């Protein structure tokens, strides 16, 4: 039988389907909103609510081939990828699950039958061994008495550090919640049939192929478990690992799917490299991960999931650079991934162009940074006297050049160079401390409160209601009273205030009783409670007071006009751009709206005007904006738009604007489109790879904007003494005249720099093996001064330059060091010497630093000391 990757996947699914399991499609790599995971990292993730008892399921037996990504947290395989033969970022997890149906005996029997039966995987029984939790005698007995596995092949795994229930063979979802013992199946790849417990650490000899978890307890405290009323089974087997064993290869990177992808890398880049090249393996792994992450509509970014994607892409590009690949290449591999996975992942086929465009743009942006940082880092490594890279160099690469720290670590790992991570973290911490403004506001404590109360939102219909005070928090602590001038959070049983959500800001207004007034300036949601954040203006309010809650109606009307306009914009964009766009974020307040969306081409002014025309036409039609409630299934059938990967309740609010817009939304909206008045786009820009942002205004703000623009144009016409027809011609003439002046100025500047440079070259001296220049300069223009210093550094190749000039009654010094000696001498250290002996002030970085002193004679006195200091460190 031919065990291709696709065949193995299909055999696994078919085996369990024949044993009355329902095949469930893989869920997205993006977990549901209530998960604390960045990415789906196990087959059980999509069933988490079922294990927790929060959700009922139609099937008691299911089987899946789940797409997974492990790049952080408990399961972090990122830095092992490429160096290990059996680890990946992206992989497929084969799993069978029982929800209150079969348990230990059946689960183990299924696994053994699939693995060893000649009709299925037909693995030699004598090459399989298992581990069990030391206190799980029942599982031990099943392996011994029913499966009849020799005792020497059943290993009991104990506790870690004598902590109860802390064991490699005791699975837990978190610090509390469902948990239970597990049994793991290993495959012995060697000819040595003798087994010792410590041998399991040899991952090349013994490969873990299957983990079967028996979920039978609920952990309520660290060491307190109670039995669950319903027992479940959760298993996981890596598709790539089991395929490598069935194909009898010693690495996942040699299985058919990886082999074909690696051949594509060779062919596209015309490489001739030996097998098992770690960089090739990393590129192959990372293009799979990148393709599937983007396929789930995640884009490269500097934070959250987008940062993980960017890190994966850049690590692959780094290894491409190491292989000598100079041209952009990564995006060209997407078609190979889609071809190899086409049978099981057909949804990627329609996204190929999008995925390629995103990767291509990311690669172009990073190439310049990569080239500069890579060159500088290798130079630093070359000049190291020991095997440790200075943490300051690592931070300089990151902060000044933009070369990621994790890539520096990866290169150092290749060269067996150590980095003092503790020192690096201190440098980063100090930098952040200096750059951040110290602000203490109520926002520092609003996320620390925990509330079990439920608030009912009445704001769709009412702007003012009577309500009961349920909870009061002051400085994050629950109190019975909030007094005058205190800031805090008030929880009501029902409220007209909308809590910040879905891009819409929270309402503001007042909560009052008699003469006691609490000013609400923001509203947030805390689970099912709505928190009114503000300050007690006069009097005091107590728990259980019956109060009046009144929103700022004028502000609310402006907010909801902008929110309705955002829905119109979403629909108009799809019409004008003629591609399916995906919302990437929004912000809506009373003054403007902001809408982020995915699109991979430039947007021109004619398209902007077309979008405005379509939206204003809908406003002029004055159509009704209607809401209705229904199931999420019903909403999908009726083709309402919804945010991908957002977790929705079973009952959702459907918002419809005539026949033009249909979206799921919990925000507040206008009654009719005519309420919006006028719509005007004020900016459109690209904010990230494949992400555009539109900002727009409505109503009076839009009108004022147009009037201001008219006023500015009138002033320009009066200044230039021009009419409408001649205005553009006159402006172009002025621009052309200025451009010619700029060219003439550049020629003069070059002459000034050349003359000054020639004079300074005569003053260069040699200190040991380097050159030293110290002189006053006639050039005081900072831009010209920098150009001249760069030219001087090229001239001397290796050395120190100190230039100074008089400004008013003081002297400004610039110290600059060539790159190749910064590991020995740093500009900021020379500046510190000057400051110390002249009472000057200043600072800087490794290559360039500056200071200001009052008396030039003080500097000349210490000049011999500076040259002596330089001589000592060369």
Commentary on this structure:
The protein has 874 residues and is an alpha+beta fold. It folds into five domains: 246 residues, 2-Layer Sandwich (BirA Bifunctional Protein, domain 2), CATH 3.30.930.10; 180 residues, no CATH class; 110 residues, Elongation Factor Tu (Ef-tu), domain 3, CATH 2.40.30; 153 residues, 2-Layer Sandwich (Threonyl-tRNA Synthetase, Chain A, domain 2); 126 residues, Diaminopimelate Epimerase, Chain A, domain 1. The chain is 38% helix and 26% strand. The protein has 21 helices and 37 strands. Strands 1, 2, 5, 6, 7, 8, 9, 10 and 11 form a nine-stranded mixed beta sheet that branches. α7 runs antiparallel to α8. The longest helix is centred in the C-terminal third of the chain and has 38 residues.
Write a brief caption for the model.
The protein is of the alpha+beta class. 38% of the residues lie in helices and 26% in strands.
Mean pLDDT over the residues = 88
User: How would you classify the quaternary structure?
Assistant: single chain
Main pleated-sheet profile: 9 strands, mixed
The helicity comes to 25-40%
N-end to C-end Cα span: 69 Å
How many DSSP-defined strands?
37
Features:
9-stranded mixed sheet, 21 helices, 874 residues, BirA Bifunctional Protein, domain 2, 6-stranded antiparallel barrel, alpha+beta, Elongation Factor Tu (Ef-tu), domain 3, 5 domains
């Amino acid at each position: 039988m031919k065990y291709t990757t696709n065949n193995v996947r299909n055999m696994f699914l078919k085996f369990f389907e024949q044993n009355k399991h329902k095949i469930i499609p893989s869920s997205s790599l993006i977990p549901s909103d209530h998960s604390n995971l960045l990415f789906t990292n196990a087959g059980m993730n999509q069933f988490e609510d079922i294990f927790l008892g929060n959700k009922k399921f139609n099937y008691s037996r299911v089987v899946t081939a789940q797409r997974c990504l492990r790049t952080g947290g408990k399961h972090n395989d990122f830095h092992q990828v490429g160096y290990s033969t059996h680890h990946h970022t992206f992989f497929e997890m084969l799993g069978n699950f029982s929800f209150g149906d079969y348990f230990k005996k059946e689960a183990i029997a299924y696994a053994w039958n699939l693995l060893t039966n000649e009709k299925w995987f037909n693995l030699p029984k004598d090459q399989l061994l298992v581990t069990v939790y030391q206190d799980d005698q029942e599982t031990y007995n099943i392996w011994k008495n029913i499966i009849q596995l020799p005792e020497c092949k059943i290993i009991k795994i104990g506790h870690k550090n004598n902590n109860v229930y802390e064991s490699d063979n005791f699975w837990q979802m978190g610090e509390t919640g469902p948990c239970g013992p597990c049994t793991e199946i290993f495959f012995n790849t060697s000819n040595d049939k003798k087994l010792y417990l410590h041998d399991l650490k040899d991952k090349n000899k013994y490969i873990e192929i299957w983990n079967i978890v028996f979920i039978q307890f609920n952990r309520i405290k660290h060491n307190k478990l109670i039995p669950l009323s319903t027992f479940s089974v959760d298993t996981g087997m890596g598709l790539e690992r089991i395929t490598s064993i069935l194909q009898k290869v010693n690495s996942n990177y040699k299985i058919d799917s990886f082999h074909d992808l690696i051949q594509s890398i060779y062919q596209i880049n015309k490489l001739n490299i030996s097998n098992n090249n770690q960089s090739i393996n990393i590129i192959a792994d990372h293009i799979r991960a990148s393709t599937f992450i983007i396929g789930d509509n995640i884009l490269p970014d500097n934070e959250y999931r987008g940062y993980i994607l960017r890190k994966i892409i850049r690590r692959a590009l780094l290894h491409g650079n190491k292989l000598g690949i100079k041209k952009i290449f990564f995006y060209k591999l997407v078609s190979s991934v889609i071809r190899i996975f086409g049978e099981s992942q057909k949804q990627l086929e329609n996204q190929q162009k999008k995925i390629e465009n995103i990767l291509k743009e990311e690669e172009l942006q990073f190439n310049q940074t990569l080239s500069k940082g890579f060159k500088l880092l290798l130079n630093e490594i070359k000049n190291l006297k020991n095997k440790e890279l200075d943490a300051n160099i690592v931070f300089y690469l990151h902060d000044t050049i933009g070369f990621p720290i994790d890539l520096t670590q990866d290169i150092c790992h290749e060269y067996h160079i150590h980095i003092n991570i503790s020192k690096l973290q201190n440098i980063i911490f100090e930098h952040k401390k200096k750059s951040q403004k110290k602000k203490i506001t109520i926002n520092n404590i609003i996320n620390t409160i925990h509330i079990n109360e439920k608030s009912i939102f009445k704001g769709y219909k009412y702007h003012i209601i009577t309500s009961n005070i349920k909870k009061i928090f002051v400085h994050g602590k629950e109190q019975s009273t909030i007094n005058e001038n205190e800031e805090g959070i008030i929880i009501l049983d029902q409220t007209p205030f909308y809590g910040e959500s879905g891009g819409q800001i929270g309402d503001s207004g007042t909560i009052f009783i008699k003469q006691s007034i609490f000013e609400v300036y923001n509203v947030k949601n805390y689970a099912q409670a709505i928190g009114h954040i503000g300050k007690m203006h006069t009097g005091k309010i107590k728990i259980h007071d019956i109060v009046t809650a009144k929103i700022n109606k004028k502000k609310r009307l402006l907010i909801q006009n902008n929110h309705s306009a955002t829905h119109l914009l979403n629909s108009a964009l799809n019409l004008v751009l003629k591609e399916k766009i995906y919302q990437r974020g929004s912000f809506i307040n009373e003054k403007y709206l902001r809408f982020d969306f995915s699109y991979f081409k430039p947007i021109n002014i004619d398209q902007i005007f077309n979008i405005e025309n379509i939206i204003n036409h809908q406003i002029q039609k004055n159509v009704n904006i209607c809401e209705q409630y229904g199931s999420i299934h019903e909403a999908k059938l009726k083709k309402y738009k919804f945010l991908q990967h957002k977790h929705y309740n079973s009952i959702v609010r459907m918002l419809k604007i005539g026949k033009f817009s249909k979206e799921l939304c919990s925000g507040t909206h206008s009654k009719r489109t005519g309420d919006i008045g006028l719509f005007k786009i004020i900016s459109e820009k690209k904010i990230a790879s494949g992400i555009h942002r539109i900002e727009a205004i409505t109503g009076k703000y839009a009108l004022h904007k147009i009037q201001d623009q008219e006023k500015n144009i009138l002033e320009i016409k009066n200044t230039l003494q021009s009419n409408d027809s001649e205005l553009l011609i006159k402006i172009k003439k002025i621009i052309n005249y200025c451009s010619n002046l700029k060219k003439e100025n550049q020629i003069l500047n070059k002459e000034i720099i050349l003359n000054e440079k020639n004079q300074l070259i005569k003053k260069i001296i040699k200190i040991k093996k380097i050159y030293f220049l110290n002189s006053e300069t006639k050039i005081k223009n900072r831009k010209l001064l920098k150009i001249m210093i760069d030219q001087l550094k090229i001239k001397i190749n290796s050395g120190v330059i100190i230039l100074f000039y008089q400004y008013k009654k003081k002297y400004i010094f610039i110290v600059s060091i060539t790159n190749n000696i910064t590991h020995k001498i740093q500009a900021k250290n020379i500046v510190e010497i000057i400051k110390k002996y002249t009472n000057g002030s200043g600072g800087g970085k490794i290559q360039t630093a500056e200071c200001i002193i009052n008396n030039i004679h003080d500097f000349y006195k210490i000049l011999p000391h500076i040259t002596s200091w330089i001589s000592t460190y060369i």
